[in-house]
Design brief:
alpha+beta; five-stranded antiparallel sheet; 18 strands; 23% strand; rod-shaped
């Protein structure tokens, strides 16, 4: 029977191979083909076309067993394919996991945030590579296990403790605090703390992410300093959009133009200027700001209540974003009214000074002429002229201190008399505060010099016991009040009236009588010379200049 059955089963390995390679359908076709081939080979020579019963049985048995084998091989093939697919899936999953791990590792390494993992007690268990850099940690093993809240001080320590407690209870929290790196560099941090939950939903560990916001904090502090500076500035500080609409003015600006607490959002730059000045701003200032980045000069702005034009020193500059795009315009404007008044006063003073200098030169010419005319010899003339010019200089010193507008009588007397004797002992001054007119001051200074010179040569100041008393007073009020000044010498040698009047006597009486518009008399009393000046107060002093 084996010999009868053998031809069919010789095809079994081929059918198995076909099934493995091409699948179950191909295996059944291969089985059918092998039956036909085997039957064809085993046909008897008479070509009756009939097989023996044994061969029919062998063919049927072959078909059944081979078909079953094909089924088994199909199952095996599918199992092999499923195994290959599962293996490929595992390989892809492992590759994906490795890629994700590499990506997360790269993210943690490149992140500038300090990412930390804490245990539920708040102790450090992990710190990212980027976090170690930003925290300036050279060896993480040196700080692993350290309580994280201890890295903070003050309010930061309290916030960190509260954040750890909240994470233990399943809550997230954030805070801003100041802490130093491991190298002692102080920094500001924004910290986010959240729980890391397990499969059962409970907090297993704690995640802490700290971001360095030192630069932002410093820029905010710088901005706050600028805002405080702008708010406290006494200058007009304002800002406008590109279209000219105002959006900021400090208190000094509002006060300068009389806006108070009024809404400024409807105002534009041109509203702050008279029409002719607004044209200058539109045609010159704004183009210069766009071209050169700034403009500064003198303009006039207007007061919104009174309409008064206010002279100002005006500076404008662009307000830009970080990319350099112009967002608007800013201005710092200084009230220049005081400067304008000073300029006007300076012009007036220069004109007055020129006038006064002409008068002084006329006085110098008169002094020189009279001194030389009455001199007996050149040395004495030189000495007298020099002394009188010094007295004139003392008077101009006092006038210069008051911008040549006036001179205080007491200061004038001190400057004129100090070189001739000790003030307060040998020369006593007594009188109220009186402010003299400029020309009157020069005449009086020269007269006091002549009186003191004569006293030093011939009168009370020529002896140790001599004294001079200079007193003045104001009698009455109003325009008709009288001004009286008295020079009295005591303790000097006996006095006699001179037989010849010199330049000094003439200067004392005539010039004072002329400038003061009153009377000036000299009395040669035996006990000492006395000089008296009596004039209307309004002719001697400036209005409101008597105390």
């Amino acid at each position: 029977m084996f010999a009868e059955f053998a031809p069919w089963f010789l095809f079994t390995p081929a059918v198995v191979v076909v099934t493995l390679l091409l699948g179950g359908g191909a295996g059944l076709w291969a089985t059918l083909l092998s039956i036909l081939c085997a039957g064809y080979v085993l046909l008897d020579p008479p070509a009756s076309g009939n097989l023996t019963s044994i061969r029919w049985a062998a063919s049927a048995l072959y078909a059944a067993t081979t078909s079953g084998l094909v089924g088994l091989v199909v199952v095996l093939r599918q199992a092999l394919r499923a195994s290959d697919a599962a293996r490929d899936g595992l390989l892809r999953a492992a590759a994906d996991a490795a890629e994700r791990e590499a990506f997360l590792t790269s993210v943690l390494a490149s992140s500038t945030d300090c990412i930390k993992v804490l245990d539920l007690d708040g102790k450090l268990t992990f710190m990212s590579e980027g976090g170690q850099r930003v925290m300036e940690v050279s060896d993480f093993n040196a700080i692993v296990g350290c309580p994280w809240p201890d890295f903070w001080t003050g309010s930061g320590h309290i916030d960190a403790l509260a954040a750890v407690q909240g994470a233990r209870e399943g809550r997230s929290a954030s805070f801003v605090g100041r802490a130093s790196t491991m190298r002692g560099t102080p920094k500001w941090w924004h910290v986010a703390v959240s729980p890391i939950r397990g499969l059962d939903g409970t907090s297993q560990r704690i995640l802490s992410v700290s971001r360095d916001i030192t630069a932002l904090r410093e820029s905010e502090e710088e901005r706050d300093r600028f805002v405080r500076l702008a708010e406290n500035s006494t200058d007009f500080i304002g800002m406008a959009h590109v279209d000219g609409r105002m959006f900021y003015m400090n208190d000094a600006a509002r006060e300068l133009v009389g806006l108070g607490a009024a809404d400024i959002t409807e105002l534009v730059i041109a509203d702050f200027f008279p029409p002719e000045e607004a044209a200058i701003v539109a045609n010159e200032v704004l183009p210069a700001v766009g071209r050169d980045g700034h403009w500064a000069g003198e303009l006039r702005i207007r007061h919104f209540v009174t309409g008064e034009p206010i002279p100002v020193l005006y500076a404008m500059f662009p307000v830009t974003d970080p990319d350099g795009n112009t967002l608007g315009y800013g201005t710092v404007t200084r009230d220049f009214r005081a400067g304008k008044r000073a300029e006007e006063d300076m012009r007036m003073m220069n004109g007055e000074l020129a006038h006064r200098l002409k008068n002084v030169l006329a006085v110098v010419q008169s002094i020189a002429l009279q001194t030389l005319r009455n001199a007996t010899d050149l040395p004495s003339a030189s000495e007298n002229l020099s002394a009188r010019l010094v007295a004139l200089g003392a008077a101009t010193d006092v006038l210069t201190g008051a911008s040549w507008r006036s001179a205080d009588l007491c200061a004038l007397a001190e400057h004129a008399l100090a070189p001739h004797g000790e003030l307060g002992t040998r020369i006593v001054l007594d009188g109220p505060a009186v402010t003299l007119q400029p020309q009157v001051a020069i005449a009086l200074a020269l007269a006091l010099h002549e009186l003191a010179t004569n006293a030093a040569k011939y009168g009370a100041l020529s002896t140790e016991a001599g004294r001079v008393h200079l007193a003045w007073q104001v009698d009455g009020t109003g325009p008709e009040a009288r001004f009286r000044l008295t020079w009295r010498e005591q303790g000097g040698p006996p006095v006699a009236k001179p037989t010849r009047r010199g330049f000094g006597s003439t200067l004392i009486e005539r010039s004072l009588r002329s400038y003061f518009g009153g009377t000036a008399e000299t009395e040669y009393r035996p006990d000492g010379l006395t000089f008296t000046l009596d004039a209307r107060l309004g002719d001697a002093i400036l209005e409101g200049g008597n105390g």
